[in-house]
Each structure stands twice: as structure tokens, then as C-alpha cells.
Amino acid sequence: MTTRLRLRTDQIVSYLDQGTGSPLILIHGVGMQHQAWSPQIEAFSQTHRVIAIDLPGHGESTPLEKGSELPDFVQWLHDFIIALNCGPANIAGHSMGALIAGGYVSEHPESVNRVALLNGVYKRTETAQKAVLTRADEIANGGIDLKGPLARWFTESPTDLIAKEKTERWLSQMNQQSYAITYRAFARGDATYTDSWEKVKCPALFLTGDGDPNSTPEMSRTMAEQAPRGHLCIIKGHKHMANLTAADTVNDALTDWLNQPVCHHRSS
Prior knowledge:
The protein is an alpha/beta fold. Helix content is 42%, strand content 18%. It has one domain: 3-Layer(aba) Sandwich (Rossmann fold). Helix 2 packs across helix 3 (96-107). The radius of gyration is 17 Å and the shape is globular.
């Protein structure tokens, strides 16, 4: 059962809060819901306090204003962590959630013990940038495309097909305007915090599938090489929704990440 937290008069965040121990905050991607982390919630709520958030305009969370950019989503996360008093935390994000997690550790390193970017993007090529901006315009003007993302995100394996059915249901439940606001920020945010990884001192995991055409292995490798404590994990035979289609492998990588020692935060 989800809980609703009011940040401001016009801003409510819905989230699942399960388990006890060190906080593990999970942030899903565009068009998803916190249930997209179900294999990780089940596994890590045995050892951690798992807080799986619905992004603005997703699930039962209210959307941000039209025109919001990635830093607005980072501020939204900060407001949530302050209101819930759950920092410093371990923060794992997928896709758009990975962009938010990367921005958050850049802006608020004192509030992060460890950071993990699953299927994250980094400085898209000019061709890829044009394609994702075109999709953002199409969403704003014509509705939510189901076939395109599903084709990019999944193979035709039996495991993928099960996850594909769930993902299609979540996408179909999205409000078009909320989807457009978040996707626009996702499309424009891939280079916002890219120069910050050299300054990130905490353990940082960068994970993707070797078949992900948009959150490529090269992107994850570049970020891992820049972060002083970066670790790279490329999962063979999987695409964009690896946390669902390769849950055991992803959970093993997250377990190793959560076992990495952290720096002690000093109060200013």
C-alpha cells in the first residue's frame, strides 16, 4: 500500500515505504510506476528500508508544472527526502530516475551514501538527441506511443514478454500531459550534470543491458570511468528494463553496491 506525502499545497508524492534499516530510495523511469521496482522491493526490503517513489504525474503523485526541467525534478526529490527525513540514503534510479539520481548526488552529495544509475543516459549523440526531442514533441501533441518504447525496451524472450505486458499496462495508464512534462525533461536533461562525476566520491554503480540502444553500454562506461568509485555492470542479452528482465543479476549487482563502504558525512 502506498503512502501520500504532501510537500506543498499543490504537490503530493505517493510512495511505498517497506522494511527497516538503511534507506534505499528507488526512482523509476518515464511512464512507469513504483511497481516497476517490484523484484528489488521484494529483495531489499528484507535488509533495508526501501522507499519506492512515484515520479511527479505518475501513480498518485501530482505533476510538476509544464516546462519543468531536470533540476526541477532534482529539487522535487530533495524536498521529498527532507520532508521524510530519510537522508543520507542509498539512491538508485532507472532511466529518467537515473538522471534524477545523478543530478541529486551532484547537488546534494551530503545526502547520498551510494548512487546507482540503471540504464542511464549520458550526452546523447546529435542523431539520438534529435530523435528523443522529436518523440517529446510527438507525446505533447499526439498522445502516448506504446509500440515504440516496448520495441526498444524488450527482446522476445519469455521473461521479457511477461515484463513487457506489465510495462504496457503502466504506460497505458499515464496521463498524456504528465507524460509529456516528464519526457521533455528527460529528453533535454542528458547533459545537465555530466561534468559532475569526477566530484562524486561515494560508491557509484552504472548498469545497463548490452542491447539497450538508447542507454548504451558506452554511456555507462564513460560515467563509471569518470566517477572515482565508479563500477560498471553490463548485462548480456538484455535491453532497457533490465531490473525486471534480469532481476537476479541486477539484484546481485545492487547487493555488491550496497556492501561498498561509504564516506562519513561531516556536518558543516
